From TrEMBL:
Domain spans labelled UDP-3-O-[3-hydroxymyristoyl] glucosamine N-acyltransferase non-repeat region: 22-89
CC per GO annotation: membrane
Function: Catalyzes the N-acylation of UDP-3-O-acylglucosamine using 3-hydroxyacyl-ACP as the acyl donor. Is involved in the biosynthesis of lipid A, a phosphorylated glycolipid that anchors the lipopolysaccharide to the outer membrane of the cell.
EC number of this enzyme: 2.3.1.191
Gene expressing this chain: lpxD
Name this protein carries in UniProt: UDP-3-O-acylglucosamine N-acyltransferase
GO biological process: lipid A biosynthetic process
Pfam families the UniProt entry points to: Hexapep, LpxD
GO terms for MF: N-acyltransferase activity; UDP-3-O-[(3R)-3-hydroxyacyl]-glucosamine N-acyltransferase activity
Amino acid sequence: MKISAEQIAGVLEGEVVGDPTVLVSTLSKIEEGKVGSLSFLANPKYIHHIYTTQASVVIVNNSFIPDQEVKATMIKVEDAYKSFSKLLEYYNQVKLMKSGIEQYAVLSEGVEHGDDLYLGSFSYVGTNTKIGNNVKIYPNTFIGDNVKIGDNTIIFAGVRIYSETEIGNNCIIHAGTIVGSDGFGFAPNPDGTYNKVPQIGNVIIEDNVEIGAGTTIDRATLGSTIIRKGVKLDNQIQVAHNVEIGENTVIASQSGVAGSTKIGKNCMIGGQVGIVGHLTIGDGVKIQAQSGVTKNLKNNAAVQGSPALAHADFLRSYNHFKNLSKLSEEVEQLKKKN
């Protein structure tokens, strides 16, 4: 899609300095700009690039006054960084503006859907599923029976959503994610074998949740696994059966939460964190990357390590154990003197 400098200025409420008819069709860093691309200048240390960039259009702050010729058309705005972010959002909306049911997509008996549905090729929607308005479901996606999907939700290619799952409004589920697969429930027998415990609950994902690619969220044994409003999950996270994650909590990649653990709201959990089952994690908790959490955490706790310690205690302990080799040598020398 090509768009003119004048059209961009209209979206951003900015002023064009240069050719208002020049067209751009791609985005670039200012130092890597090419003809036909749009860039921005916000950081003063990159000012020198505006005089050499090949970008056709550059968004700049109102306060920017060049001291030599700028070949690119400039769009002057109050805050170049915020304006560029706004433009990225606009670009993304246009890019995802699809509707219609493509060839080879399947809508089963009893499916209800709102206006402006996009359903990509080779996608399957199970019986009695209800889909809201302006929902985008990309190719090769499976949606089971009795699923509910709210308005303005985007489900990218290759997602698997099992039966009875409920998904709210304005959610984004990235490619390859699996929602509602069986929880890890097995009962041991005296002979060392296991019987599978039926997993008959579901998953509830509330509004404004974003789930990264390749993440798995298990259905509850009974009741629901719940992802509350505003939660952001990174790629490749495992959320086990009956877990509850509180509002606006963020979890980074490769973390795992074992069954029946309850995580509070506004928590920040780093990458590769492991949390054992049946714990209660309070509100506002911060867990550093690669920590192993084995006990309940109170509101606003900050922990690190495996098993996790209070963050300040971990840093003090680290000062000691990083010097263990040196301390050991000193002890041996003292032994010899005695």
